[in-house]
Structures are given as C-alpha cells and as structure tokens.
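As agreed, record passed on underneath.
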Amino acid sequence: MASTWCWELSGSGLDSLALVERELRSPGPDELLVRIDACGICFSDIKILNLGPAHPRLQGRDMVAEPIVMGHEAAMTVVEAGSAVSERFPVGSRYLIQADVYFQGRGMAFGYLLPGGFSQYQIIGREILDGDEGCYLLPVTDRLSHAQAALCEPWACVEASYAYQPRKSLKPGGRALLLLLDMYQIEQVADELPGFRSVTVTALTAMTNPWLSDPSRARAEVKALLDENPGGFDDVLIYGLPNPTLATAAATLLAPGGVLAIQGQGETGPIPIDVGSVHYRNHWYTGLPTGNVYRWDRTAELAPRGVAWFIGAGGPIGQMHIERALTLPSPPSKIIISQNGGARLDDLRQRFAARAAEMGISFVTFDARALGSELYDLVKRETGGHGCDDICVVVPNAEVIERAYTLLAPGGGMNIFAGVAVGAEARIDIGAVPSRGVRMWGTSGSSIADLKNVLDKVEAGGLATDRVVAAVGGLPALKEGLHAVREGVFVGKTLIYPHCKDLPLLTVEELAERHPEIAEVLFNGRYWTPEAETALLKLYGGVPVETPCAG
C-alpha cells in the first residue's frame, strides 16, 4: 500500500482538476489512515469547482502550490491507526464524517481545507478526531451499506432545516436598537422581554426623532446609525407598524444572526428584503400584535396534517425533502410539488405518488415551466384559498420566494433551503410577520446532532438514504460525474466508489441493463439498495460491506 490515487483541484474549472498518484504515508500517533469506501458528489463541490480560490472557504489559499481534494459526503473504514488512537478507532471500524470541522476556533472543513473523499485513502488527524465540537467521525455499523452511510451527510443538511430553532430572546450581552413609533414606554418593553436589562440598548422614540415617521428621511438617518454602529445590531425592535421605507432600512442594520422584531398590526406592503441574508447570515424576522415579539407558537417542522408545497423538488435534495415528509409520524395531509416538466417531474410522480396515495396523502404535481404565473393561482386553489402551512423552496430564486411568500397560510413557515446570494432581494410584506404569524428561515450545512439523528433513523430502518442514487462511477469517472451534476443530467445523486477503478459513470438503469444480478435486487426495479451495491462491488472490485441490509 505505497500509493493512493486522488483528484486534486489547483484552480477553477474542470481543466484545473487532475487525477494524481501520491505517496501513501503511515499515520502518526494521533492520526488514522482510512479507506474511502464511497463519496457523493454535492452541488457544493460544483461551487468549489466554479470558484476555485475565490470560494469563501478558500480565499487566500494558493491552490497551485497547495491543491485541494474535494468530496465531503464520505463513508470510510480505518485501515491503520496511530498508537495514541488505536483503542478509540480499531482497524476495520467504519465511519461517516460531519464535514464542517472546527479546530481551535478555525473552520477547516473536510473536502475544503482538509483533503476530502475524492481519493482512495486519506489521513484523518486531530482536527477531526479532537475538534472543537468533539470527534467529527460518527461510527457506522455493518447494517449500513457504503452508500447509505455516505449519503447521511446531505440528508443531515435537510434534517437541519427542520430542526432550526430561532433565537427566542434578545441576544445575551448583545446590542439592541429599540424604535418606539407609538406611545410605547421603554419600561413596557422591558417588562415584556426577558433579558432586556442585560443588553446594551439604543432607544429612539418618534416623539424625539420625528424621522421615524417620515419616509423621506428614514434612509439617510438609518445610514447614519449604521455609520455610528458599523457592526450593526443583534436585535432591531420596532414597536408600532413601520412605514415601508423605515422597515426596509431597518433590516440593513442587522448583524449576522440578527433578529428584526415588530410589534404591530397591519401591512407594510411588499418591500425589498435581503432573503440571501435569511439563508446565509441567519437573519430572523419575528413579531406579534402584542406581547413578547420573540414568541413563536410552532416549530420549523412540517405542520402535522397540513399543506406543504415543495418548489423545485425534482433534484436529489428535493427528493430527500419529500421522502422525509413521507416518513414523518404525522405527515402533511397534502403535498404539492412544482417542478419544471421533464424527466425529473416524471420521476417524482413515479417515485412518490402511489406511496402517498397508500398513506392517504393528497399528492399534487405541477409543471412550473408550462404553467408560468398560473402556477400560483393553482396552488392557492389547492389550498382552498387558505394558503400553505409550509413552503420549502429548493431553487435559488428570489422571485420565486417573493411570489410563494404571498401563499403562506396564517402561521405558515417558509424554509428557504436553496440559498440565494447575500444581497438578493425579494419584495416581502413583513407586516404579515406580526399580523399573520408567518415566518421564513434558511439554514446552511448541518451539525453533528443533525447527522446523528439521520444516522439513527437509517440504522432503525426508517430512512433509506441510498434510494436517491441515480448514477455511480469509479474514481476515474469523477470529472465526468462533476460535469453531469453541474449540468443537471441525472435526476438523483451521483456516487463515487473510489476503489472501483474500472467502473465508468453509469446510471442505475444502465447498470440494470448490463448486469441482471443488479437488476434483480433494485427496489421496485429502479432504485438503489445495499444488495445492489454489494453486487456492484463484486463485479467491479470494490470492498463490500460484509452484512448489508435493505434498510
């Protein structure tokens, strides 16, 4: 075992990606040498490929001198352990990885700063084994196939969006801006908000600051506030319904993780809101007509027996959202899916419609491209005019967010899963936040707890993470696989088996045509299974799990 093959990226674009052979060293005392058994291709890899050193996580890195090895959806097996960690990580033990690694306060994700899974073998060091949040490896039993284990990571990102918990109070020790538009008193606010007296508060009243009620002055005055407070505010509290100009300007004062809260009743009308910051900077808009403006009477989980609308759900991540919805103890009573017509929409119908019908769930699909603006009228009609309890946006499109937001039912929630760029604006009536109780949120990545939650579901047989596999290939097929993912060629996930060196990039259907032994063990004759993986690895020279199960 003197060498290993891996793909190294030295810049942006496929031309900067090279398959190279590197010397394979033994691990140090506190390191592991692991075999990469499977690694999924994520659209995050495409972002790295497109941006190269301009990627936010790689800025400042000389990728020519120090290329990166991408791939973070990885399942692995320990083949050698250093003397200091051999008891914790025995040879032959299997793991998946929480890729968002933090070590000594520094983010150094696996597949970004740390060499990742598009390789045959990898060294796992202290950054992962003893990181700031503990060990970033999660043990996997032989009940799971390599694909099931590797694909827990993208599933965990989906899980995280439903486990989202907004801040329920002022940020302890933070900085708050209090704008009193009506006859509110600071003492009244302090009594309603726990922890009010533990934060630094800048309070402005309309009586002494008449610009708060003057749209012609609001932008300039808020800019002056931002100049005086360049870091922004952790909390911006508005008591009384703001005019549209003030509401728009006030949102620009939010620091990362900031909360804008409104106590009031009525509409602001559609105003430009940075929805990219909802996803990537964790901005949260909350409010009520009266009382504690941080109170939220529901969670980010899909409303039991509600109406859920999934927008752009035909890709692998969208399929995960729908699969997850159908595995809930109390799933929605109606699932609406809008997706551009073609193979992806057809696959969604074949994959989920009959199953939803068996569960008594109304399953409605719309061809978004064919319908155009009529789509929104049809969705409203499907809800009986009430609106959707949940809307999950799986396409990075601010205009779609803007249009869909108007179809939230009272108390409804919008999960902005596919992030649009920070600065991307949608015209949103944020008066609906306190008046109608609607909310919107976005998440990026996942935590160890999210990953563990998904792993537990898979181990218990409640979730088949590998059903979304659409194509597989050996390590030499990675470049072709990245191109296919970038162009949206396949309807599901593309999975790389690094030790199947002679395995070309093939769809599940193509494998079934070539190999009857694979065809006969696919679920419903078309979906990936542990048994199909075992057959594949025997045919193409990979390392099967000894006792896979159907899951």
